[in-house]
Fold this sequence. Notes:
By secondary structure, the chain is an alpha/beta fold. The protein folds into two domains: 2-52 and 367-392, Roll (Urease, subunit C, domain 1); 55-352, TIM Barrel. The protein has 13 helices and 17 strands. The protein has helices at residues 77-86, 92-108, 124-129, 146-161, 183-191, 207-215, 219-226, 241-248, 265-274, 284-290, 297-302, 322-332, 338-352; strands at residues 2-10, 16-17, 20-24, 30-35, 45-53, 55-60, 111-118, 133-140, 170-175, 198-203, 254-259, 278-282, 306-309, 370-374, 377-378, 383-384, 389-392. The strands form four sheets. Strands 1, 2, 3, 4, 5, 14 and 17 form a seven-stranded mixed beta sheet that branches. It is globular. The chain starts with a strand and ends with a strand. The structure holds zinc ion (ZN). Zinc ion binds at residues 59, 61, 117, 202, 312.
Amino acid sequence: MKKISADRIHTISHGVLTDHVIVYSDVGSIIAIDPIANHDPSTVYVLRGDIIPGFVNTHCHLELSHMKGKVDTGTTLLPFLQNVVQFRDISQAEINQKIIDADQEMWDNGIVAVGDICNKVDTADVKSKSKIDYYSFIEMFDFMQASMTTGTIAQYEEVYANQSTVGNNKKSKVPHAPYTVSQELLQYLTSNNEASATISIHNQETSAEDQLFRHKQGAFLDFYQNFGFTLDHLEATGLTSIHYTTSWLNPEHKTLFVHNTCTTEDDIAHAHQWGNQIYWATCPNANLYIENRLPAYQRFINQGAKMTIGTDSLTSNWQLSILEEIKTILKFQSYLTFEEVLQWATLHGAEALSYDDRLGSIEVGKSPGLLHLKGAVKSARKIDIRNAEIRRII
Length: 394
Ligand SMILES: [Zn+2]
């Protein structure tokens, strides 16, 4: 049993506590949260700064970790994807080592759970051994070609079957993005996931996506032509891409929309009307890396949206650190507070991945991981984390 205290304890579920102590077991289970006056001071380890629960990273592609630094920044999404597709000639040994390194990097950066996109089984061994809990999203896409749907399903059902479910690891089958998935495949995913599954989908990452669905115009037409695919069956609907997704996915599932760089308040309201377990993952550094723009967070606040935070992969980020994502959010949209965004990075993420029975907040009975946030500066108005760093307590 250990006792720890700090200037501020961010419980997330019960506000920020001062003059309190966390009592926790050797494996990190929270036994009590008490006023410090109830404890002999010589038994309490006191830190300067803040204690926060472990971070939940709701969007990553661990299997792409070997692509770090290999794709140019600022190209926008379609050239970015073309660059990624063209990149080959890396040995499986190097791919495997980069996956191990990235898993360790996330652990060192205070991440306790990850929603991870998989097109392969490369990460399964690392996930089975990792101290991090992984929710593997096996991602399917058929380039909107109904003729490819059956083959796609067969290919990815095998990938699904071989994912890690060791310990707290979980898995579901998910669509890649509205612009790569036929309605037949969306319907398959609707009826071939467990009722408790979380379904993740890349959403409105680039303006070309909405252009395709609204007007059947824009850069995606060339993109498809380059790959030799026809979009003859696709009709312009006048509606944004999220309407296509909600037409075919199951509103009973928890749904995690990822990126949402171009999402409007009408889109958010539409999704909230469609389902009642909607989460919105933002990956700000990846958005800056690829498209050099960020979502307008005020729209999500206005609509009472449940935000979560992802790092995306090392293909489109400089590191895998939720603290760095929070710093970026607060740098560019400083009307938000650290406490508000910390909730996105912890409890909301844990809820989105259905890990909130153990993770996401400092509460008796949970084992959320405890992090020391060093170097945050508290003023009357705000907590400034620009120079803050994370050190794991447990
Ligand atoms: Zn992604």
